[in-house]
Amino acid sequence: MAMEAVVSTSLSGIMSSLVKLVVNEWCVEKTMKDELTNLYDELMNMDAFLEDVSSVPPDQLESQVKLRAREVRELSHAIGTHLHSFMARIESTKGALLPSVSKVNIQQEMDRYVKEIMKKVEKVSKRYGPYPCKSALESTSSLEVSTRMFATDTRESNHVGLEGAIAELTKKLSKSDHVSIVGMGGMGKTTLARAVYDKMKGDFDCGAFVTIGQRADMKRVLMYIFHGLHMEIYGHEPDQHQLTNQLQSFLVDKRCLIVIDDIWDKETWNFVELVFKGCAGIKIITTTRNRNIVKGVGVTVYTMKPLSPADSKELLRTKAQVKSHDAEFDTLSDQVLCKCGGVPIAITMIGVLLAEHQSKEWHGVYDSIGFDEHKEDGAFQHIRKVLSYSYYALPYNIKRCFLYLSLFPEDHWIEKNMLIWRWVAEGLVPEGSFEIGETYFEELMDRCMIQWAVSPHDPSQGGCRVHILMLRVIRDLSSSENFSTVLGLGMKQESISRTIPIHRLAIHEGEAMVGRSQNSRLLEVREVLSLYASTCPGSSLPPLREFENLRVMDLERCDLSLRDSNLEQLGRLKVLKYVGLVGIHMAELPRRIGRLKLLEILDVTATGIRELPPFVEELRKLRCLRAGKGTRMMGRVGMLTCLEELWLHSADKSPDFAAELQKLCEMRVLVIHLDEVDEGMQKKLVVSLHKLRKLQVLQVWSDAEEKARLGGRDWEGSVPSSQLRQLLLLGIILPRPMPWIHHSRVPKLSKLVLQVETLEVQHVQILGQMPSLRSLCLHIHCYGNRLLYTAGKHEFMVLAYLYVTNIELICGEGALPRIQELEVGGIRVGTDVGLRGNMPLLERVSYHLDCWGCSPVEVINAEEELKQASQAHPNSPVLTIKRWDGVDVCSIPFQGAAQLSEEATKSTINPLLSGAYGQIPQAGYLDCRDRAGVVLNMKDKSLPTAFQLVSATSVQPM
């Protein structure tokens, strides 16, 4: 049976807002107030019922409960849509001098609709009786989770692809008393923990391997540990406290290895910590799907990664018992592995099935597995079941946001900020708060249900991807509960029932060809709340005027233009809150967008629109406005007082932009580019920024570097918001780091990019004390002006990414304990980089070697020293070396010094050399990245190439 999940819009929340709005705006009769209150109570009961049911897997629910849940869910969708429509109409009348007859008409219409809703709600209640309490629902389920299939197999054949992980985890455990393995369900956490346990248990006096699972009984867990340690239990039926005391007494003088597998919640984690507190000789391995459990508790974390293609194929070959080269296997394996995405449990299960059949039957076995999310049988359902447990453990509100991911194609990169704005626009986030939506995104990350990823086109842009297997689970859950409808990729509209309303519609790559056929409408889209179309021709979309209740419209890289009548219909969508036109080529913004008085998000990035017309300033509810390169705003930005996020190119061309900016008191994210900047304009800009007390992200870049240098001192005196998390100033040359960059002024600062004329030791020491700084790019702008700095043991304690130029950085013992990626620009030939055994988490290191005045032999010898230093590091980090001659990246043949000609040996590298050694044109992007999802994509000719060329690898924050 296909999996089901219960999802609904929060009706009680909408109803509460509606009651307040009506009562406050109009003097309604007491009867009307009483009816609204009664309806509110009923909707609260519906919400509570759906929330309770959503936490229990459907196969553990009684049939009547599932039927009722399905009916209540559809009713809640319909009610929520109409209540939202009423809200929009009433909001549009606020402040307007409407004739009394208009208000009376709206009140009468509402009165009729409230009575109609109550009849439907009462009808459902009479059919099924009172709503069951949560305990009654739970009593129908065993809640016993069995996800350990294949994990108890300790044979070496089960460790394919895990050899490196076993070695790394063993090393981590030798240095730490507690290591936690974190990863998505089915990734092999238990298998890895078992392998390390079996490898190391001989070095200990005793050991135990205990699997907990969901809804753990703590006393039972203790009994399992006693059994694993071969302990005798004293006393008659001792309680949990007595068992804990006995265990601690037993372990007081012993070296013990304990594995606690499959922890789901913080309470269980705290219990484990308490039980083993004070046991000096104990080593603990824990496994969990939830990273949030191990945050901030001083535990070493090992994150599971998908198997590589080569390891995936080898594991499949081993499990399928293919002894030698088999053409049939090689052909089928590519099909199988692309569906498994490196998840061991999926590969293992399929391999075992193949082993039970002859090779000529393999394709039939593959077809029967059930990769299709609409297929209700097949062995692959077990994998879906394993992954779906993470969904049922989610908080109720986050479940709806998680299912929203069903709209996106496979392996699609999803930008963080715009995903959250979609959730907000559709009403999936309480109070429409972006900050709450951000916590939802972080929760899904921490639970390993989405994967942090940078944009394939711009490594500075943060977002996520959904694993291919997890996406199938989401699609299955979403489809069975009618949360969304996805067309394309082989799924035709004929497979969609016309009797079931569509709530969210996704059209991928125009394959579905949704629209009109033989003058009939094939799909009913009146109830659609969100429309997502990717790479579709205009002919594949239904007429926009039919989407009467549409709140989110995201047309990504679709083939539309202003001549397309569809875009001219935008003005009819009165409740539309989100308009995304990214990648749609058009000359100007459709004028009728100005009629969308409830519009909150407008994204016209990469459209080719040259101007945002003055009517944009009339969109007074706009909270997020994004316009890319070549697009200028012609209206007054200060009129958009609700703006929280603004991306604007050529901001200085907007009327009196620097002064208007100070009116935007709600601003959190500001990303602006300045074509021209004089000292006066920069002074006004800094004054305005000082007044934005909610500002969290500030990115300013300018092409007018020399003019920007004149106003560099203006930044020193104005202290920004204490909420500031990111500060990136590019093309603005500062005399020195601002004195307010201090842990007492901006304690939340996590990312910093600065260009300065001078940098002193005390400046770096102050930065080293910043408690939240995770990404730092520092560039001394003057070539030849260098700083020698030794990083101390207690500095930069959380820094994960560091890029410095013209700074000779020496890493002392214990320095940079959490650094993952280090890039050093302008490093002089012969510099001691001080890698050795420092920086225990280092994964990647890059040097931009300053070759000025050096012979090719000196350069090659210096590179060899850097390679040896990298190889000598315990982590053997990935090494990248770029050569820089002071002006450009220079290219020297990579050959041994003995093979160089005498002339080349005597030559020196300088910017005048060309031809013999060649030069690589100046190019690249400055990469400033983290999970805030804020983009900075610029090709800055004002920066030395060494500062521009940054690897496209992302550092994932903790």
From TrEMBL:
Entry keyword set: Coiled coil, Leucine-rich repeat, Nucleotide-binding, Plant defense, Repeat
Annotated organism of origin: Triticum turgidum subsp. durum (Durum wheat)
The protein's name: Uncharacterized protein
Molecular function terms from GO: ADP binding
Transmembrane keyword on record: no
Disease resistance N-terminal domain mapped to chain residues: 12-94
UniProt similarity note: Belongs to the disease resistance NB-LRR family.
Domain Disease resistance R13L4/SHOC-2-like LRR: 528-879
Signal peptide: none
Occurrences of domain Disease resistance protein winged helix (ranges): 407-471
Domain NB-ARC: 165-322
Cited SUPFAM superfamilies: L domain-like (SSF52058), P-loop containing nucleoside triphosphate hydrolases (SSF52540)
Domain of life: Eukaryota
A biological process from GO: defense response to other organism
